[in-house]
Amino acid sequence: MNWNELSQASLNGIMDWASSQPWSQEMANCNQDAEWHSEGDVWTHTKMVCSQLPLLDEWSSLTSHEQLVLIFTALLHDSGKPLTSQIDPETNRIRSPKHAVKGEHLARSILRDVGCDLQTREEISRLVRFHGRPAFLLEKSDPNHEVVFLSWLVNNKLLYLFALADTRGRATKEMGRPEENLHLWKLASEENGCFEEPYDFANDQARFEFYRQREPSLHYVPHEEYSCTVILLSGLPGSGKDTWLSNARNEIPVVSLDEIRSELQIDPTDNQGEVVQEARERCRELLRKKVSFAFNATNLMRQTRQRWVDLFADYGARIEVIYVEPPFELILQQNKQREQSVPEKVIHELARKCEPPTWTESHSLVLADS
Q1: What is the pTM of this model?
Q2: Right CATH number for 3-191 from 3.90.1570, 1.10.3210, 4.10.320, 3.10.129?
Q3: Record: fold of 229-368
């Protein structure tokens, strides 16, 4: 089944499809800690969580899109456990460290393969990544910051509803954290105005600084005075970043890693130190002159983007991130048409590692799916 078919299917229909997938079979073969999950393997727990969704009081009031997002969040929330589960040598208990992080990447790959649209895919993948956070709200030094922080990454209402289903979808409810903790998540989100919508920061700069500071303030109102605007392009090779620039921002200068490699005659598989250093110097020159420009590179990992964002922010620039990702088949086709195409195997590997940008990284964000 493809995404169009799945989005029209019933919960039972989606479950039938999922039960035949290799990732669900791996979950069925993955045992869990008996004291937390006496129901047994991961897939058994997953099916129990899915069965709890229609029993939620709020279920009938949700849109079909919201219901679909919750169903796939439930299906994939523990998909990373088969990749991370291990027996603790000291306690002899099963642990699955960072399974949510692995699950996010796996969910993104699974949803890409069935043709899920970019916006919905990222909505589900991030819910998978942060699905466990509401239960630990009381362990945070500032619960208000926690709900505000996540409100620009996920919908707190859907996160709360999923957490309820996750807590109820197990045989050992007494070992789970009480539902009262989850209700506190809802209450804190509502009090901060970010239960159904992202938190309303004073302006874009306030949001940008909130996510960059170790001890951020929710009430700081900075001036929005920018020296220039830097557009940071992000996307797989062959995704169409150059085309997007030529159509939308053809009037500004561009610092392109591909062009610098060509000028320096450095192959993409060689050491990129000289290429990056030259790019940084060209960016600094434009930043010193307060000239708006675009920085064009794959920028697939958050850590990589952060180094460039830090540079631009140091010069007081407004930063716009543009992530380009058309359907994967089109990316492969467009890559073959490039003068220096990237091996298809490499593109598949880059796609598995890719971390699409979020609103926490810049002043503005565009997710372009064509």
Answers
A1: 0.94
A2: 1.10.3210
A3: Rossmann fold (3.40.50)
